[in-house]
Design a protein that fits this description.
The complex is a heterodimer of chains A (477) and B (321).
Chain A (H helix, E strand, L loop, with lengths): L4 H13 L6 H17 L4 H17 L8 H17 L15 E5 L6 H14 L5 E5 L6 H12 L3 E2 L7 H15 L4 E5 L7 H14 L3 E7 L6 H12 L3 E5 L8 H10 L3 E5 L7 E3 L2 H9 L4 H11 L2 H12 L5 H14 L2 H6 L4 H4 L1 H4 L5 H11 L3 H5 L6 H11 L3 H27 L2 H4 L2 H4 L6 H4 L3 H4 L3 H10 L1
Parallel strand pairs in A: 1-4, 1-5, 2-3, 2-4, 5-6, 6-7
Antiparallel strand pairs in A: 7-8
Helix pairs in contact in A: 1-2, 1-4, 2-3, 3-4, 4-11, 5-6, 7-8, 9-10, 12-14, 14-18, 18-20, 20-21
Chain B lengths: L1 H5 L10 H11 L3 H5 L7 H13 L4 H17 L5 H20 L13 E6 L6 H13 L5 E4 L8 H12 L3 E2 L7 H14 L4 E5 L8 H17 L6 E7 L5 H12 L4 E5 L9 H9 L3 E5 L7 E3 L2 H10 L6
The chains are: A alpha/beta (477), B alpha/beta (321).
Chain lengths: 477, 321
């Protein structure tokens, strides 16, 4: 849909570089692209204005004009500025002088407060804590049930007094209850409310004064438009918000709202919600969101997830096998399992630089069900067949198709794709031996022990696209 | 505007959008009107206008287009009075929305055939509340309504719908949480037939438009409906949160690809959001925006009227200016 900013800057400067010398007007042209990209990412208008001015100043000062790679220099500056505005480092949750740690969740209707109360509880329990959830939303029909049901799913107690009581009292009683029972932290889920609803905003102030929370976390939807700033500012002015939880980041929203809120209120972003499952909560890393706003992918998250699934030695062994052309369907199946554990394929693809914008269309067609079919076919093969795919003849194919509930053509397709893949891996191997490969791999991907070489490469659909990010990365350098 | 009125069924009471938007107007900026409160049409005005439109989530593209068109008309017709320019802009904006409203199909309720409305949207836009409003809306015409709790994913979504069902005295067909939404829809279709229901409103789980599998599930639900009623769902309503930024357009496009959306509802217009995304959606998709939602009560629903929308949200008409 929206072309990524990094693509656009490359395009703009690409056109200009043909004429040799760049002028200040050319930089202005590029800055217009920056402005447009930010606005399309829903960055607040005023924030955009200040941001572009800051980037422009640095760009003119920093020899973008004389740079051999003006696009790269410009992208670098934009990226640095984004990270600066987003807050250079990630900030953990505050620790109170005296337990319990109390987290008050506030925000508009539908921003994801209840779900993220549950996610936070689960996240903190994983750190060995003993959380208590508090249902202080007495307005929305069945809100209490929703939190109870979440609590049951993750086996975390929920304090509730139904819907007949005043939320301020409920919160107060809940904290006392938590202290008695040794629960820490206490996560208080409140009703969604408009920042202009005086009565309900006062209620939050009363809750705050009663329970004196360690953190007041504003839960905001990543898809919010220009109003994000107004909303956040209003909540901040009334309550003194201490952190931001950015939700629905698993969609394709650029998340410019987060940049605006951070820039205007100075409140740090503490967590991002990345899916419907209750473990889909991640700490916030500024450089990742910066990359996303720029449309540069999120390689770091990808590598992190890949590393969770592979140990280095295993990856090295696998790489050797691949380069020697010994990679068989048994290995392939193994890799498939690992990729599956890393999350939905569509999400993974989006993290790869350069893939974001170009594959937006294609991405819609890639579903995790594709894994299932491929898996079913391979699982219908005997170990011998998996080790020696070339030995699979017509009769075996018929049996495999029957066994996996697919057509023979599907089996054929898988086998021919696999063969192509093997050939390509062999070529990679040959290149590596001649010492050519390192230069062709994107810089980012090389970093942690060749992390990506292992799990990502064997995915058949992705294989065809691999040259793309590689080429991109080279250009960017 | 005349065309737009033609599409309204005559027997329907005129639901007052003005009333619904009253709360919105309170917080809404009247800066566009103020902007034209000057003596000359200068460059600054165009720049400020573009800024105001973008701030209202109208989006970069559409804002550029609106300003460029205004500029062209002003130059061509040698317009000097800013008040005239303001009226041109107003007309342009209304026209943009009408372009889509015109695509609204006349819907016919047949005796003995349930009119099925499938309500879809991303998470947290206010689908369930909107369904309650729609139910109340159809009840006002004396139609019998039934709800189907097709959101079996979100914790307590079924309870939420059931509470609304009790309040509105409307039967709710529901299964357990985690059940197959297809089975819920199947049962609801049968029940609607058996009980001679006029309008069946089907809730669906919120889903991000980027989740291919979940989008495919909507198509499956539609097929199940069609097994009972060939023309069902006669209405596929996409609910968009008024505070949504430019992603709203992508949402609409993706939902339109999976299930032919017939109508759009802009929800949560009672906040300070201007709902500018309506313009991008109307321009790019041409899907008619049919309703606006403004609060948490079942009666907080209004029919969408391009002129009222533009006037209430952008020009503050009715504020005694």
């Amino acid at each position: 849909m929206f072309e990524s900013l990094s693509d656009r800057l490359n395009e703009t400067f690409g056109r200009l570089s043909k004429k040799g010398r760049l002028t200040e007007e050319d930089v202005d042209g590029a800055m217009r692209e920056v402005r447009r990209a930010l606005l399309e990412a829903d960055v607040n208008f005023k924030v955009t204005k200040d941001f572009v001015a800051a980037v422009r100043e640095r760009a003119v000062g920093q020899d973008v004009l004389r740079s051999l790679t003006p696009a790269q220099t410009a992208i670098g500056i934009v990226n640095e500025e984004l990270v600066r505005v987003l807050g250079n480092e990630r900030e953990p949750l505050r620790v109170p002088d005296r337990p319990p740690q109390i987290l008050l969740m506030v925000g508009l209707q539908g921003s994801g407060k209840t779900t993220h109360s549950g996610k936070l509880a689960l996240h903190l329990r994983k750190e060995g804590r003993n959380p208590l959830l508090v249902a202080a939303d007495v307005y929305r029909p069945a809100a209490v049930n929703q939190l109870q049901s979440l609590g049951k799913q993750i086996n975390i107690p929920v304090y509730e007094e139904g819907t007949g009581r005043n939320p301020v009292d409920i919160a107060g009683n809940a904290v006392r209850f938590a202290i008695d029972r040794g629960h820490n932290p206490v996560i208080v889920d409140t009703a969604g409310r408009l920042q202009i609803d005086e009565r309900l905003m006062q209620e939050l102030v009363d809750i705050r004064d009663r329970i004196r929370p360690t953190e007041i976390l504003l839960v905001a939807d990543a898809m919010t438009g220009q109003e994000a700033v107004g909303v956040a500012q209003a909540f901040h002015d009334r309550l003194g918000v201490t952190g931001l939880v950015l939700t629905k980041m698993d969609g394709d929203a650029r998340g410019g709202a987060a940049l605006s809120i951070r820039a205007v209120t100075g409140v740090p972003i503490k967590f991002i919600g990345t899916g419907e499952k209750l473990d889909a909560l991640e700490p916030f890393y500024p450089e990742r969101l910066a990359g996303r706003i720029l449309g540069m992918g999120d390689v770091l998250s990808l590598i992190e997830r890949a590393q969770e699934q592979t140990d280095e030695k295993e990856a090295q062994k696998l790489q050797d096998r691949m380069f020697k052309g010994q990679f068989d369907l048994e290995d392939f199946l193994d890799q498939l399992q690992k990729i599956k554990k890393m999350g939905p394929l569509s999400q993974l693809l989006e993290m790869i630089p350069g893939v974001g914008s170009q594959l937006r269309e294609a991405k819609a067609q890639i579903s995790d069900d594709d894994y299932k079919h491929v898996e079913a076919i391979i699982r219908s093969m005997t170990p011998y067949e998996r080790r020696h795919p070339d030995k699979i003849g017509t009769s075996r194919k018929r049996r495999i198709a029957l066994g996996s509930g697919s057509e023979r053509a599907d089996v054929n397709q898988l086998l021919s794709q696999f063969k192509q893949m093997q050939t390509m891996m062999g070529q990679f191997g040959a290149m590596a031996r001649k010492g050519k490969l390192p230069a062709d791999l994107p810089l980012d991907l090389q970093a942690p022990g060749g992390g990506l070489g292992g799990p990502m490469a064997p995915q058949p659909r992705q294989r065809q696209r691999q040259p793309q990010p590689a080429r991109k990365a080279r250009r960017r350098r | 505007m005349v065309l737009n009125r033609l599409f309204r069924r005559r027997a329907e009471p005129d639901v007052q959008i003005d009333q619904g938007l009253e709360k919105t107007r309170r917080g809404v900026f009247l800066e566009i009107t103020r902007l034209f409160d000057r003596s000359v049409l200068d460059e600054e005005l165009y720049e400020d206008l573009e800024m105001l439109l973008i701030q209202a989530d109208v989006g970069w593209d559409v804002s550029q287009k609106l300003v460029a068109e205004l500029r062209e008309r002003v130059d061509r017709d040698r317009i000097k009075d800013p008040a005239d320019a303001r009226e041109i802009l107003r007309q342009e904006m209304i026209l943009l929305l009408e372009f889509a409203t015109r695509n609204r199909k006349v819907k016919i309720l047949q005796r003995g055939v349930p009119f099925v409305i499938m309500v879809v949207g991303v998470n947290g836009v206010g689908k369930t509340t909107s369904i309650a409003k729609l139910a109340a809306y159809h009840q006002r015409f004396g139609r019998s309504v039934m709800l189907a709790a097709g959101d079996t994913f979100r914790a307590a979504a079924i309870d939420q719908l059931s509470v609304w069902g009790e309040r509105l005295k409307v039967p709710v067909i529901a299964h357990q949480q985690g059940a197959d939404p297809g089975a819920v829809v199947f049962d609801a279709m049968q029940a609607a037939h058996a009980r001679n229901i006029d309008v069946l409103i089907v809730d669906t789980a919120g889903r991000l438009h980027t989740k291919y599998n979940l989008m495919a599930e909507l198509e499956k639900l539609r097929k199940i409906m069609r097994r009972h009623v060939e023309t069902a769902p006669q209405e596929v309503l996409l609910v968009i949160d008024a505070t949504t930024g430019q992603n709203g357009l992508i949402q609409a496009q993706e939902f339109a690809k999976s299930v032919d959306i017939t109508d759009i509802m802009i929800a949560k217009l009672d906040g300070t959001a201007k709902g500018g995304i309506a313009f991008s959606v109307a321009k790019e998709l041409g899907t008619p925006i049919s309703y606006v939602g403004t609060g948490e009560k079942a009666t907080d629903l209004a029919e969408f009227r391009p002129d009222t929308y533009v006037d209430s949200l952008f020009f503050g008409v009715g504020e005694g200016l």
